[in-house]
């Protein structure tokens, strides 16, 4: 949700900023802008739409300066337009601000500032920050003015601030929105996420909430917002710029789908103990004793991560005998969840920055819960603020539609099931079977990829349809939800996921020849029941695309099209059944000419509540 990049050093800031914005476009692409300070002049360039529009406008510019901030926007307050694009400036355009987050009291502040004679140029909440900093910049100390301005603000922010009158300083501050600082040779970078700066440096510090950093040409100083000096550990980034490229694929989404043979392996590397039939998860070592004593887990997540949690509910209840609840993060904090000493809370988030999930995590912590994280982005807020957790090690996920993170989350939750199951009722033999089946999954995923051309052919047949139903039962009900989400978010086709049997309690009314159903019908304990559900759809003229277990010839009598997945144990079947659904959604969106990696209205990291 909005991306920020800042630079101060001895190089031209513009190429660094524009390149950084392109890396952050997954966070929003409604408008983009840059502010640069050059020889005591502040110049702002912005444009509606993607970063490329801005780049075109900048082609003729020269002498752009060695200090700058930039922004790519996902609109919250105010339409996506030129005037609402960041950076925003104060009354005399002497300073500029970029902001990610939401200023909750902006209307009160705006009215107050208007009464003081200030004229607003945009409809955004962010513009108040520029005016407040301008108002408090009385003695030339930009850091102090930002610190003072932020005292007036309620809400969340990650900001970058520069001023024409302070050409040697770049200020960053955060509360609730991420900010990372890159440390180079005689230069510093500020960004919403390390992918924007990894080309230039691997040394970073992660700002915590209520931290402010003053980046000068010769060094930096970090303080709390109430001006207490603090120090930060310098981290080394574990990924490189190559992992941010499409690697020959047309879209990041396709690249990330195809990476899953490796990312699933990475999620289990060094963690599966085949002989002992269990798993080791070092990030949970601090709470091992607690893990033995709990009898209830609450998973809290959003979107695709919530679907992974739902699969986890089936796994942990069946194999570890632990009662599991799966909560939408956005709802969790508005209820009064009961958390006793035998309850463990797991927050699941690819980005580790989803605002709803962060807020739920804090609510659970306030209630005294031990909160653990399952995250992909190393150093993200959730990864840093939980009591422990497990990384996915999936590498950067850039396509807005989550794919490889989902299968990595399922892998990690399978390992958690193995670990907790073996502490409880799971036998050694059953543990060994699960561990062996898990190790076979990457090879099985590779086998599914061989049907990519068939899946594309099916996509061509069904791409003109505007409504789809996705059905699955048991472990594959959450996969039906995930398949429907993938299709709707990238192709804008209306798709609903349902438990297959629940379909006859309402959605069946929608079925006709124009509403195809994608049905996960694997050879498991619910196979016969799913076949009956398929018949119910067919009796109403509905077309069936079945995801079936390889060698199942019987299914061909019931479905119009079949995509096969290799046989595995039921708990791991979602790791395989979701792959054809990701590919089907991808190809349908491509055939419809959609913007696959950056679908309309969406952003990868939802950092507003
Ligand atoms: C769907 C998708 C979203 C995210 C959701 C949570 O493809 O990407 O539904 O899953 O916004 O994001 P994280 O996992 O980063 O908390």
Walk me through the structure:
The protein is of the alpha/beta class and 609 residues long. It folds into three domains: 3-239, Glutamine Phosphoribosylpyrophosphate, subunit 1, domain 1 (4-Layer Sandwich); 245-445, Rossmann fold; 450-609, Glucose-6-phosphate isomerase like protein, domain 1 (Rossmann fold), CATH 3.40.50. Helix content is 34%, strand content 23%. An eight-stranded antiparallel beta sheet has the order 3-2-4-1-10-9-11-15, with helices on one face. A seven-stranded antiparallel beta sheet has the order 5-6-7-8-12-13-14, covered by helices on one side. α11 links the parallel β20 and β21. Bound molecules: fructose -6-phosphate (F6R). Residues 302-305, 349-351, 354, 357, 401-402, 485, 489, 605-606 line the site of fructose -6-phosphate.
Mean pLDDT: 93
CATH architecture label name of the largest domain: 4-Layer Sandwich
Topology, number of strands: 27
Strand order of the largest sheet: 3-2-4-1-10-9-11-15
CATH fold group of the largest domain? Glutamine Phosphoribosylpyrophosphate, subunit 1, domain 1
CATH level-1 class of the largest domain: Alpha Beta
Q: How many individual helices?
A: 18
Give the CATH superfamily of the largest domain: Aminohydrolase, N-terminal nucleophile (Ntn) domain
Ligand catalogue: fructose -6-phosphate
Helix content: 25-40%
Q: Name the overall outline.
A: globular
**Main β sheet profile:** 8 strands, antiparallel
